[in-house]
Amino acid sequence: MHQANRLFETQAQLVEGGVFLHRMQQFFAAVMARVGHTERTQTMGLLSAAEYRLFERMPLYDQRHCLDVYQSLVRMGYTDEYLLRAALIHDCGKVDDDGRPMPLLFYGLFVVLRRLLPGLYQRGARSRHRWLRYFAIHASHDARSAVLATAAGSPPELTQILRDYADHRSTDATRALHWADSLN
Questions:
Q1: 170-179: average pLDDT
Q2: Residue 101, beta-bridge partner list
Q3: Which of 49, 61, 120, 162 counts the most CB atoms within 10 A of its CB?
Q4: C-beta separation of 114 from 121 below 8 A
Q5: Chain segment 126-154, per-residue pLDDT in tens
Q6: Global pTM?
Q7: What does each C-alpha distance from 117 to 8, 56, 122 come to in angstroms?
C-alpha cells in the first residue's frame, strides 16, 4: 500500500508541476518535427563531416530536438563552439549500433518508468533480452553519444563536454546543456 501511495503522489506531482504537460508538448512536437533546408545547411557548416553523419543518423524528431537545444543556447548568448556543436549531437547515442533509432513511443515509457518505477527501469536497462535493448540504449545514450563523437574524431573539448554531461559532472557547459535540453 505504501508503494501505491508513493506512486500516486509522484503522479500528482508530475501533473501539478507541469511536467506531464511539458512531456505531452514534447511528444506532439516530435510527431510534427521538421528540419528545414536552411537549418540543415547551417548544421553542416557547424559540424565536421563525421559529426554531421552522426546528426543525420538520428531520427527527425531527435534532430529537431538537438536543433532546438542548440537554438536555445544561441538565444541565451552562448557562443562556445564546442558547446554548440555538442548540443547538435548530444543525443546521437540513441541510435543503436546497427543504425536503428529508438522508437518515439519508447521515450515516454522510459521517462515515466525512470521517474515512477526506477527499479523496473534499471532492470530493463541491465537486461540482455533483445526486445529490451532500447532500455539499455536509453539508459546509456549520453555516454554512447560521447563515445560516438570520439570515434567521429570530434575535438577533445567537445567530447569532454559530452563525457561530463553523461557523468553528471557540473561544469558551465554541462549546466548550460542541461538547461537547454530540459527546456526542449
A1: 97
A2: 95
A3: 162
A4: yes
A5: 887 877 888 899 999 999 999 999 999 99
A6: 0.82
A7: 12, 33, 9
